[in-house]
Amino acid sequence: xxxxxxxxxxxxxxxxxxxxxxxxxxxxxxxxxxxxxxxxxxxxxxxxxxxxxxxxxxxxxxxxxxxxxxxxxxxxxxxxxxxxxxxxxxxxxxxxxxxxxxxxxxxxxxxxxxxxxxxxxxxxxxxxxxxxxxxxxxxxxxxxxxxxxxxxxxxxxxxxxxxxxxxxxxxxxxxxxxxxxxxxxxxxxxxxxxxxxxxxxxxxxxxxxxxxxxxxxxxxxxxxxxxxxxxxxxxxxxxxxxxxxxxxxxxxxxxxxxxxxxxxxxxxxxxxxxxxxxxxxxxxxxxxxxxxxxxxxxxxxxxxxxxxxxxxxxxxxxxxxxxxxxxxxxxxxxxxxxxxxxxxxxxxxxxxxxxxxxxxxxxxxxxxxxxxxxxxxxxxxxxxxxxxxxxxxxxxxxxxxxxxxxxxxxxxxxxxxxxxxxxxxxxxxxxxxxxxxxxxxxxxxxxxxxxxxxxxxxxxxxxxxxxxxxxxxxxxxxxxxxxxxxxxxxxxxxxxxxxxxxxxxxxxxxxxxxxxxxxxxxxxxxxxxxxxxxxx
Length: 536
Description:
With 536 residues, the chain is mostly helical. Helices cover 71% and strands 1% of the residues.
């Protein structure tokens, strides 16, 4: 009986040290174990494996059962009781066997599969393979990379379902398998992200590099040729889900923006052979083209980019990174056509909560209006009712006349410059932009409250200056250290002279705003009067 043969081999090996196990012992164990599986003694084999006395032998030799076990599992349908028994055996082997040997055994099965069995085999072994990889202490990054590369190499020859019917049928299981592979990779992505959060210098580790290779391969296949449009009748499109997951991994590992905007920098090459290098560069170009399509056409991950960027621009303590993020934001803006720019500007004006960023966006709006007015064809997104709707977000004070004008000075100056441009460039008789239709609302919601706010702010700061000067005359020393609050923020401890400099600087800002405001109002008055005179 096959079970008796297996027990005899195990008993003989139990008296040996692990180092004394011979190749012959492994072969005999595999043959006897395989016979147990094929002759219907799976339940007895499971008992042998679970027996505590057999742990050392199973730890060293159990991985040899992977090949016949996989064949048996795939021979039965999902709901078959025998399949469930084989799966329990597989689970026990994963728990008990030497991780290194088991890893090689599982990978060998994936490598040897072909045809219609590819996706079935991969999906069967992904969970055991993941468990084993998480146990590995040495060369984990290499092993994860090898696993993902092997899996993708096996999937790549399979045809990508394209039509609605093909996607729904998923005849070879590719749709399901691709998303299962992403789930397989997630614990390793989480490990990279966790380490990146611990240290800002965690940028170029082996594990991160292997996961990046996997993402690039996935962009090339299956996503480059996959049907990614929403299909009626398919609630969750498998390839859209897969695309979203791949973009999400790149975003989590902080590689999405560098790949999309800085891909002119070539990554480190591993090839000495120029022909191989050229092939890799071609594959990389295809992957990057697919990524750009996913972002700028299908809009995967598009919502995350402006917010990641604004945080760096406004909160990062490193100056060159703040400047770099500003450059990337402009590159990002330039990727869009007019409608996309319009939507992005609205989004950033509502969510950035930073006067400097809002001022920068308003300057971009002005540039787009200028292009619309100077091009041969009209741009409906930056003229007419669309522009007026956008101006409602631009030409206003967040808190009316009580707005902190110093804090919002960048935004206010940009808004005034935009309004000045519109009044100069667009005649009331033409009214291409629609601004003259809204001029009464602009005066009510923006210009008049700004006048009141300026008068209040200037009076407050002038009184503060007068107070500081009187205190200085009453004190023995002008270098007395004291505190000052400006724009709601407590300034570092300063001497009276330093405080006066800050207060005068604030007054200068108010004067600058007031001079531009006066010029805008003058231009409006002149244009309105000219039209009235013409009508008379």
